[in-house]
Amino acid sequence: MGVLGPFPGSAERPPGQALDREEADRALERLSAEYEAIDSSLQALQDHAGRRLLEGADLTGVTKERWAATERSLAALWADFDAYTEALATVRTLRERRRWLSPDDLAELTGLLRDAPIPATGATGGADATPCTLRELVARLNGRYARALDTIVAADAVWSTLPARIDLLAEELRRTRSLAHSVGVRPGTHPSGDDLEDITDELTRLRAEVIADPLAFWVAPAGGSAAPGGGRPDTARYDRAARALEDVRREIEAVLDVRQDAEARLMRLRDVLSRADRTLTEARQARGEVLAKIAACEVPAVSGPSTALHEQLAAAADFRRRAQWHRLSPLLDRLEESAEDELLRARESLTAVTAPLAVRAELRGRLDAYKAKLARHGLAGDPLPAERYDAARRLLWSAPCDLRAAEAAVARYQRAAAEALVPDRGEA
Question: Where does this protein have coiled-coil stretches (predicted)?
């Protein structure tokens, strides 16, 4: 459906000069073709689905105001078209009066086609109540038609786009709500449950507003557009709701993932905490051994298993039994990190506690290594190194062991061994 075409004026002759018969016939032929185009466009406008919807809708806001103005304009449009029809009938009657037109007939016909005033329709009053020429009447028809079509097409475009998309999103929302309820995500118990309620309310409001005031959701093109309905539906609120629902859906999927692998994660957590507990037990036992075997040494205390972590693990298992997946999900995430930290702390505690035993083992190894080296050179019986070896060995194999004294004794033995090996620098 297009905007009405321009009036096919008779520009063959300059103003004030009458048309000849052929020119008048051509002008009348073009005028008749234009009339058919106008009639077709008006009928299509009358049958337009958007017009019928607007006519029967309970409108509000911008749409109510514009449609009221458009209805008045449509009434005036049809009144103008009736005037146009009468003017064309008058022209045709004059032309069909006789086959050969006299100069007076041609002058009268030229006046009707060009400048004769058409009586005012009085449809809307004001400027429209002023008589106008046929050319001016066609221009007025064009303007009214374009404005009415713009309103109708814009409203129809919004109604054709947004309600269907809102309904599809609402259906996805219902599926997401059902899924959320299955994993315990409900309003008041989980933020995503509250978000679903907010999205539901927003879609309900949005659909009602779109149905009642579609033109409030129409964005005109920048700088305007000559085409009726030029612009696009405003989907900003719909897009925000769709993004919010997608965020919630991802959150629900994360909770579903927790449900699927909850038992495996709980088993891994039990294993990690069990290893941490065993390591701490080993550290406490090692501490007792160190205190018994090493003298004059500070040994750090060893804490017991983390009661809080075990309580949280028990709570996680309870959430799983009760299918409270939305609570289990964040708890498992925290527990996994805390359990690894606990295992690391236990290992560090064991390392710190057993450090004196490691030092004693290193000193024993160094002592025996130098003794073996002297033996390879046939110096095992050298009196000074042998004496210092025996002194260091007594300290290292006594309980409790004085590490400071033992370390000094090993150092003295190393010096004595080094002095004994001086003549044999080749291997030293």
Answer: 21-48, 238-286
Task: Please state the domain extents for the chain.
Answer: 21-157, 162-221+229-255, 268-354, 357-424
* Number of Cβ atoms within 10 Å of the Cβ of 63: 24
| Rounded Cα gap, residues 428 and 422, in angstroms | 7
pTM above 0.70, yes or no: no
- Rounded Cα gap, residues 426 and 13, in angstroms: 130
> Where does the pLDDT of residue 14 fall: very low under 50, low under 70, confident under 90, or very high at 90 and above?
low
- Give the max Cα distance, the chain: 159
- 403: closest CA among 351, 360, 354, 358? 360
Percent of the chain with pLDDT over 90: 33
The Cα 341–Cα 335 span in angstroms is 10
- Output the CA torsion 415→416→422→425 (10° steps): -60
- The pLDDT of residue 226 is above 60: no
Question: For residue 216, what pLDDT band results from cuts at 50, 70 and 90?
Answer: very high
Q: Which residues, 6 or more positions from 53, have their beta carbon under 8 angstroms from its beta carbon? A: 155, 156, 159
Q: What is the pLDDT of residue 426?
A: 45
